[in-house]
Amino acid sequence: MKSFIAKLTVLTLAIALIGWLVFSLFLPEYYLPVFPFLLGFFFVVTLAIHAYQLRIAQKDIGKFARSNMLITFFKLMTYSVLAVIYIALDRENAIQFVVGLMFLYLVYSFFEVKEVSKINRLTRK
C-alpha cells in the first residue's frame, strides 16, 4: 500500500505541475479555480477504492473480480453526478470542467487499472 500511495502522490503532483504550466503559460483563460479540489478528489477516491480492492483481494479473489466491475460502475456514476452538479451551478465553464474531469478520469483510471492488474497477478500466483 505504501508503494501505491507514493506512486499516486507522484502522479497527482505531476498532474498539478503540468496543469500549472499549461494554465499559466498557454491557456490561462481556461483555468478553473476548482481544478486543485478536483485533483484532490480524484486522489482521495482512487486511494480509498484501491485500499478497499486490496482488502477484498486478500480475502477472496473471486469476490475481487466480481466487485471490480461494480466499483468501476459506481465510480463512473459518482463522477457523472459531480459533472451534472457542476454544470448546473456553473454553465459558463461547463466545457472546461467536463474536459478536465474526463482527462483526470482517464489518467487516474489508467493508473488504477495498471495497479489493480498487478494485484490480480500477484494473487493468482
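Second entry:
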Amino acid sequence: MPKKKTSTLFEDSLAELEQLVVQLEQGDISLEESLKSFERGVNLTRTCQKALQEAEQKVQILIEKNGTQTLEPFTDE
C-alpha cells in the first residue's frame, strides 16, 4: 500500500480534527465518547504539527544560499 503524501495526510488530519471539534462542541455524545474523541484530537494535532515542522524544514533548506539564510520580512499588503 503506498504511503500518503504529507500534504494529503495533513489535510485529512485537519479535516478530521475540525469534525471532532464540532462534535465535541455540540455536546451530544457521552463522556466516554468525548474522551475518545479528545484523545483522537490530540493525536491528530500531533500529526499536523509534525507535518508543519517538516514543511518548515523543507522551506528553510530551499531558502538557504551558500550557508546563509536570505529571509525577508513577510507583508500581506
